[in-house]
């Protein structure tokens, strides 16, 4: 098993006190490629919830300019991880995200779920396909990092415990993943975006590879066909072969800074305040679910086994 200066530093740090540093090393140095693929899956899975996909359909962002919308989201998240949520650039990124969402009356539970995907999807992907599984202090550091980001975005009722939030995440998916036309539209736009990054000849294979990495519940919520069992096995085998190769290769020596990548949607760079759609002056628009969602605490308690106590 390979080792690295980043791994040794992570092992020496405290997951609460040093959660910003651990998150940066984990997502941008130890597992830079894995974290990027997990971000793609997190983006897709959030659109399995009709009240969330309706926001994207109403805004038109993902269907009309998908690469720009994807780039802007990734840049804002990268600013937070690379510079810290309390840095000057991090505070500007949070302010911009709040401005982008302010036009829509989005349910707190939907904010909670999207936030949870940034936490749990990288951990789950790395544990399945990384060159090593995540360490406990990496998992806890990611929890503390995204919880602090959520608090600064005025997300309410964020669970104070990693396991409770994980239970809430799974319970929310069971309760709210269901098919809708808005899911299908946004899902198709997103998979078209993912496949557009590859030569035309392999785009169908890439599309089916995305299907093979999604849970069947997510595919049903999009109205996508299920990937054949042989394709799921082949995709997983390929990713695990990559992990075995990485174990004998030298570790990444420097972090991969996603905010410095030149992008087609921002060929000359970007200003944080100009990311996302142009500011809207109209009144807030409600496009989410109408009923009041259960609180995170209530759903988490429901998901807990009866014999456990907290």
Protein model, in words:
The protein contains 15 helices and no strands. By secondary structure, the chain is mainly α. The chain has one domain (12-302). Helix 6 (66-83) packs antiparallel against helix 7 (88-102), helix 8 (108-129) packs across helix 10 and helix 10 (162-176) crosses helix 15.
Low-confidence stretches: 280-288, 290-310
Number of helices: 15
| Fraction of residues in β-strands | under 5%
Question: Averaged pLDDT, please?
Answer: 89
Class inferred from helices and paired strands = mainly alpha
Helical residue percent band: 55-70%
Distance linking N and C termini: 37 Å
What is the general shape? Answer: globular
Number of domains: 1
Q: Cα-atom Rg, whole angstroms?
A: 19 Å
The run of helices and strands is HHHHHHHHHHHHHHH
* Quaternary structure annotation: single chain
Count the beta strands.
0
In this structure, how is the largest beta sheet organized?
none
Summarize the structure.
This protein has helices at 5-12, 19-30, 32-46, 50-59, 61-64, 66-83, 88-102, 108-129, 136-152, 162-176, 181-196, 203-213, 216-222, 229-248, 296-303.
Lay out the secondary structure.
Layout (H helix, E strand, L loop, with lengths): L4 H8 L6 H12 L1 H15 L3 H10 L1 H4 L1 H18 L4 H15 L5 H22 L6 H17 L9 H15 L4 H16 L6 H11 L2 H7 L6 H20 L47 H8 L7
Helix pairs in contact: 1-2, 2-3, 2-9, 3-8, 4-11, 6-7, 8-9, 8-10, 10-15, 11-12, 12-14
């Amino acid at each position: 098993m390979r080792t690295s200066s980043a791994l040794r530093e992570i092992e020496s740090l405290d997951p609460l006190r040093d959660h910003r540093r651990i998150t940066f090393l984990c997502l941008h140095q130890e597992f830079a490629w894995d974290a990027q693929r997990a971000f793609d899956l997190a983006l897709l899975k959030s659109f399995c919830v009709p009240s969330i996909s309706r926001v994207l359909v109403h805004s038109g962002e993902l269907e009309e300019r998908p690469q720009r919308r994807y780039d802007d989201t990734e840049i804002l998240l990268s600013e937070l991880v690379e510079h810290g949520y309390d840095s000057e650039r991090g505070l500007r990124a949070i302010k911009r995200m709040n401005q982008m969402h302010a036009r829509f009356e989005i349910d707190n539970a939907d904010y909670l779920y999207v936030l949870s995907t940034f936490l749990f999807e990288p951990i789950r992907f790395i544990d399945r396909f990384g060159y090593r599984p995540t360490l406990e202090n990496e998992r806890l550091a990611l929890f503390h990092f995204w919880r602090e980001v959520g608090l600064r975005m005025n997300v309410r009722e964020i669970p104070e415990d990693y396991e409770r939030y994980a239970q809430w995440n799974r319970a929310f998916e069971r309760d709210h993943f269901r098919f809708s036309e808005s899911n299908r539209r946004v899902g198709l736009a997103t998979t078209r975006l993912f496949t557009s990054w590859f030569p035309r000849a392999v785009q169908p294979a890439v599309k089916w590879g995305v299907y093979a990495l999604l849970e069947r519940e997510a595919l049903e919520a999009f109205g996508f066909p299920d990937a054949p069992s042989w394709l799921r096995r082949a995709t997983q085998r390929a990713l695990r072969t990559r992990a075995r190769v990485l174990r004998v290769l030298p570790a990444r020596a420097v972090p991969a800074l996603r905010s410095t990548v030149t992008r087609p949607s921002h060929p000359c760079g970007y200003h944080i305040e100009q990311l996302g759609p142009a500011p809207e002056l109209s009144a807030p628009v409600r496009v989410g679910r109408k009923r009041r969602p259960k609180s995170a605490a209530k759903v988490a308690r429901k998901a807990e086994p009866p014999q456990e106590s907290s």
